[in-house]
Design brief:
heterodimer; A: alpha/beta; Rossmann fold; 2 domains; four-stranded parallel β-sheet; B: 474 residues; alpha+beta; Porin; 16-stranded antiparallel β-barrel; 18% helix; elongated
Chain lengths: 315, 474
């Protein structure tokens, strides 16, 4: 008799354990780790209530030089999905972390590894690869997130990636994507009108970050302060740059937050232009809290700079 | 549009000149005009159809052209070359110019200078004077083996003084690493730099200085090379905690064993290593890394193969980093160091047992370690200072504390100091991520040898896919 009761108790305990673990799992959110904050913002929009998202890098960092912190490992180890910008944007830090994270699900090539650049047509793909041309991105310029149309492609890729991993939530992801894209479309219409005076405005930046942005809003890239991608400028290069800026009437100098202020200011002073500090990721400026903020902030600040420098076009 | 404008022109002509003419003429004209218009319409329709056909033809032609091109490209990429699965390659070239003011032969007090040299670090056994030295041309090869493992090898060719300065090729590392074991485990096997301490498992060219800290060079003997198997585990904790255990045939250069066809090694003659490391973010900009390591060889053959003795090397390491997220790439600070304790029965330099001043065999310890601080002034410039200290394991000490077995004095039997200090200042310049120039000054105070000044100029370059793994991170 006691034995029977014992068995029943065990069965009850076992059933309770099963139910509680099942409940815990049902309530548990999908844990997504993204490399960069733009991806985290968009993933949170697509995943909605179903996901907890964390970005490894913060918006003020140099995205090419994020320090390999061991504290990233427990996060990657737990992650159900990892989202990267792709086009080797994070090549200096994410492969080393992934190979040590002991989570084969999120290794490159597996479905848990979502590459947000999959739908992007890359620009500035180098014709020949040589380190004489600096720290090239073999797959092309990876700063497509600064173009709002890039944001659309990122969102679509993330939605597809999440659906592939969690097909049971397809409807939610699709509905969230639709809502996001509707909002983005409306914003893009606004931004195109807002950015009209930027058409034809010539500019230089520290690093070649603004290609996609410039193409979208009709601005003209004249050069970079860096000698080559990732290579600090030489004195001769700066002299040449200032010369060509004077000839071409360039008055706008973009400085990304992780670069020093000194050289951009000197150059702007020499050509009688304006330096404008523009974030290249969400969180790169205190006001920039979402992806929409990022695009809007950059357009607004560029307009201010172009107007102050007297190169803004008339609408 | 055309029809519209023609009708307009007709109207204008009609209004100007033809208006006053008779309505009969107009009726006739109207009929023929309608006929004409009909004809024109038919002609236009025909033209339109022709144009449409032409467009379709052109389109198909264009598509065919593009398809032909794309197919050719696809076909060529479909071909399988034996070289398509070639591993990633990288070559590191590390060359050093040096000058040293004195040879530092340790004098044990019996008048025979140089017979008991203080270990074999590169900057100590070298005689005084100037030299240029290709320290290494190091080939690094790595690739995935299959879905379960990856492998890598480091083949080094370095000028060997004993070989008329001709390069001798050596396999520094050749190891297989698992990639998808469960329970957060990874197994590594082959020849590799054992997971002991921090700088012991860095390649020479990856050190923050020109030379290996003399304490590490003496206690570990260069890189922490071993042949064996390592199991490492990443704890499923919210903070970083990693543990590893290794069984190998040696650690670095100091552990030797005369195993051959005739001599076998007892299982206690292997080296058993363990390491535990952790890391904390104090906040976004400050972090601390801590680690502890042990390498125990219960019964190792000594350097002269004259007997078997126990040796235990214990290490503690720390690293503090201030790396402001917004501008750490061009301004940051690293302070790091390692403390080692070598406890053993063998004399690692001369072989045989360690002896006290009375000539009795003893189990005796020696301390050593280094600490350095490096400041990043800009993306390109990094100055740093280092202090290194170690005691000679081979010297009988005047007094040994019988409780701790630690030397209570650093004077030897004849009253000579047996500890070594090196003060270092260095400056590194990175023209790019793949090239580095470094200037270094060492002031070496070794035992009772004359103090020496050393200058180094190092030029290092990397070709190919030089990406740092997790354990080589800055």
């Amino acid at each position: 008799m006691t034995l029977v009761w014992c068995n029943r108790l065990w069965a009850l305990a076992f059933a309770l354990a099963l139910v509680s673990s099942g409940m815990a799992r049902a309530e548990e959110k999908i844990y997504v780790v993204t490399t960069l904050p733009d991806l985290a913002d968009i993933t949170a929009r697509i995943g909605g209530e179903l996901v907890t998202v964390e970005s490894l890098a913060k918006g003020i960092e140099d995205p090419h030089g994020v320090p390999i912190k061991p504290s990233f490992l427990p996060k990657l180890n737990r992650a159900q999905v990892v989202v990267v910008m792709g086009l080797e944007y994070e090549h200096s830090w994410i492969p080393a972390l992934l190979s040590e994270a002991r989570n084969s699900k999120i290794m490159k090539g597996n479905i848990g590894y979502i590459d947000a650049s999959l739908k992007v047509t890359p620009k500035e793909v180098p014709m020949d690869l040589s380190r004489a041309k600096g720290e090239l991105h073999p797959a092309g310029n990876p700063h497509f997130n600064l173009d709002p149309e890039g944001g659309r492609l990122i969102a679509q890729t993330i939605a597809e990636g999440l659906t592939l991993n969690f097909p049971q939530h397809r409807a939610t992801f699709e509905a969230n994507l639709k809502a996001f894209l509707a909002q983005l479309d409306a914003k893009i219409r606004e931004w195109k009108i807002m950015a009209k005076p930027l058409q034809g405005v010539r500019f230089v930046s520290y690093h070649q970050d603004f290609t996609y942005f410039a193409d979208r809003f009709g601005m003209e890239y004249v050069g970079t302060i860096e000698l080559k991608p990732g290579i600090e400028p030489t004195a001769a290069h700066l002299v040449e740059l200032v010369q060509s800026m004077k000839t071409e009437g360039v008055k706008v100098v973009i400085r990304e937050p992780h670069f020093s202020e000194k050289v951009p200011s000197q150059i702007a002073a020499q050509v009688g232009g304006q330096v404008v500090k523009l974030p290249i990721m969400v969180g790169g400026a205190p006001e920039v809290k979402t992806y929409f903020d990022l695009i809007e902030y950059n357009i607004r600040e560029l307009l201010k700079a172009a107007q102050a420098a007297g190169v803004a076009g008339k609408v | 549009m055309h029809v519209g404008s023609r009708a307009l022109a007709l109207l204008v002509v009609f209004a100007l000149g033809l208006g006053p003419l008779a309505p009969a003429v107009f009726a006739q004209e109207k009929a023929s005009e309608l006929e004409n218009l009909k004809k024109q319409m038919l002609q236009m329709e025909e033209q339109f159809q022709q144009l449409q056909q032409q467009i379709e033809k052109l389109e198909t032609k264009k598509i065919q052209e593009v398809e032909a091109k794309a197919n050719a490209a696809l076909e060529s990429s479909k071909k399988t070359f034996a070289s398509q699965f070639n591993p990633a390659l990288s070559l590191g070239i590390d060359t050093i110019g040096s000058y040293k003011s004195h040879r530092q032969a340790f004098n044990p007090g019996d008048g025979t200078a140089g017979t008991r040299d203080a270990g074999q670090p590169i900057n100590n056994t070298r005689p005084a004077g100037a030299d240029f030295n290709l320290r290494s041309a190091e080939l690094f090869i790595s690739a995935d083996v299959d879905p379960f493992t990856r492998a890598y090898a480091t083949i080094n060719a370095s000028a060997d003084a004993a070989n008329n300065d001709e390069a001798i090729l050596s396999v520094e590392e050749a190891a297989i690493v698992t990639t998808r074991l469960p329970y957060n485990l990874t197994v590594r096997g082959g020849r590799f730099f054992a997971d002991f301490g921090v700088l012991p498992h860095r390649h020479d060219h990856d050190l923050p200085f020109v030379d290996r800290p003399p304490s590490l060079a003496t206690f570990v003997g260069g890189e922490a090379q071993t042949n064996g198997v390592e199991v490492s585990w990443l704890a499923p904790t919210p903070f970083f905690l990693r543990a590893s255990g290794t069984v190998g045939n040696k650690l670095g250069a100091d552990f030797r064993d005369g195993v051959s066809d005739v001599n076998s090694r007892p299982i206690k003659g292997l080296t058993y290593m363990g390491r535990l490391q952790t890391y904390f973010d104090i906040n976004d900009d400050n972090n601390v890394e801590l680690g502890g390591s042990i390498a125990e060889t219960p019964n190792a053959e000594d350097v002269t193969n004259s007997g078997r003795f126990e040796r235990r090397l214990v290490g503690m390491d720390f690293k503090y980093r201030w790396y402001p997220l917004g501008y750490g790439v061009r301004q940051s600070l690293t302070v790091a160091g390692e403390l080692l304790h070598d406890l053993g029965e063998a004399d690692p330099v001369n072989g045989g047992p360690r002896r006290d001043i009375f000539g009795n065999a003893v189990r005796q310890g020696a301390w050593g370690g280094y600490v350095y601080a490096e400041y990043r002034l800009s993306k390109q410039w990094r100055p740093g200072v280092r202090f290194d200290y170690f005691q000679l394991q081979s010297e009988p000490l005047l007094v040994t504390n019988s409780f701790t077995l630690q030397p209570a004095s650093t004077l030897n039997a004849t009253g000579h100091r047996t500890d070594n200090r090196t003060w270092t200042a260095y400056l590194t310049w990175f023209p790019s991520e793949f090239q580095r120039l470094r200037l270094q000054y060492n002031r070496s105070d070794r035992g009772n040898a004359q103090d020496a000044n050393e200058f180094f100029l190092q030029w290092t370059a990397f070709l190919g896919s030089h990406s740092h793994g997790f354990s080589e991170r800055e």
